[in-house]
């Protein structure tokens, strides 16, 4: 069969189909996949499946997966979790102490008051945490800038010292070189 002709691709497809219809296939070997088993995916397929799986995860699950995959230290995670845990508190004893002397309040009113009281306290705690974090970040930034400025000043001072010493050492060399050139010109 010649594949140089214009219809070579069609001839090749026909030849493959003819070979497939010709007879039985070879016996299955030990490592062969069965028709029901899925073929392994390429890199793009794996990335696509991972994207769809990660897209269905919550932020916390995604953060945990990222930290475990990237080897992020747990200390960083603990710092982020502590403020959230601090807002989870049971205020029922405090609220009971406030309203126990008032016998005229209904249980429904007490329950609603408890929800409002807890929300207000949690809101204030969250605001205070945010304020403290902002203040800490500002202090950290100021300290970093101060340290950078000190470091730049010290490096600059050292480099000036090195240049001055180099210039002093090279004055002697320069005078010798100048003297040598002058003698060559004179004796030249």
How would you describe this structure to a colleague?
By secondary structure, this protein is mostly helical. Helix content is 76%, strand content 0%. The protein contains 6 helices and no strands. The chain is flat, with a radius of gyration of 40 Å.
Offer a few descriptive terms:
188 residues; mainly alpha; 6 helices; 76% helix
Count of alpha/pi helices: 6
Average pLDDT works out at 75
Structural class: mainly alpha
Helix content: over 70%
How many angstroms does the end-to-end distance come to? Answer: 89 Å
The proportion of residues in beta strands is under 5%
Overall radius of gyration: 40 Å
Number of distinct beta strands: 0
Low-pLDDT regions? none
The multimeric state of the shown protein is single chain
Instruction: Report the principal-axis shape.
Output: flat
In N-to-C order, the SSE pattern is HHHHHH
> How many strands, what sense, and barrel or not for the largest sheet?
none
